[in-house]
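As the next step, I needed to go through one protein, both as residues and as discrete backbone shape codes, included below for the reader:
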Amino acid sequence: MRDEERDWRSAAERLLAGQDPGGPPRMGYLRRAPAGIRAEGGTLLCLSASFNPLTVAHLALVEAASRLAPSDETLLLLAQANVDKPVVGFPLADRLALLARYAAGRPTVSVAAASHGRFVDKAAAIRVHYPEKTRLLFVLGFDTLVRLFDPRYYAAMETDLACLFAAAEIVAANREPSPPAAVAAFLDRPEVRPFREQIHPIRLPDPLAAVSATAVRERLAQGESPTGLVPPEILPFLGPQPPGVSGSP
């Protein structure tokens, strides 16, 4: 491991150790964009994912969302406590360090960790760090959109969703095996319909919609290079096999 990577990883470990998933929602930066949002009226695109590891599909989501809503800053956000994904594969500190490596040299990309996994909590944690009138859009895949409206994750789903959509909008993309038509059909469900105007569907090309972090980990476990599945900036820093290959995508 190179010295710079050790520095990122050490900083990531300190950041994660300072967060309390049992307390109020909090967000901390590993790297704040030097040319990010500082004044009223900016647009923030937040991609919150497990990044296990970062893939070209993640970046395609951000690129497609940016065409819909040109942004002043992109926030790559890793939740320390995920609502339904155990920590397998890359340790959280390694995932953050890889994100920081990708963000280096990109003046409008921030990398941060959140203490909580639900989007309503992440929105509250993010808002503290940005001007009041910042437009916040969460970028997510269809599988995550479905979980967003799953009552298992709420004590009062309607109230929590109202709080979320008062603070943020959603940009949702198709992900295999669900076709783009599945996103449109989902938006017409009764529990989703009240928020439909704040959910913006986008389409990913078929090859990118099929890319998964699981496939990256499987290639590494087999001693193969994940070239083409991850951004070239992080490829040299992926070990031959992450600890644990099976599990969450």
Q: What stands out?
A: Strands lie at 27-31, 43-48, 73-79, 109-114, 135-141, 169-173, 199-202. The radius of gyration is 17 Å. The CA atoms of residues 8 and 97 lie 5 Å apart.
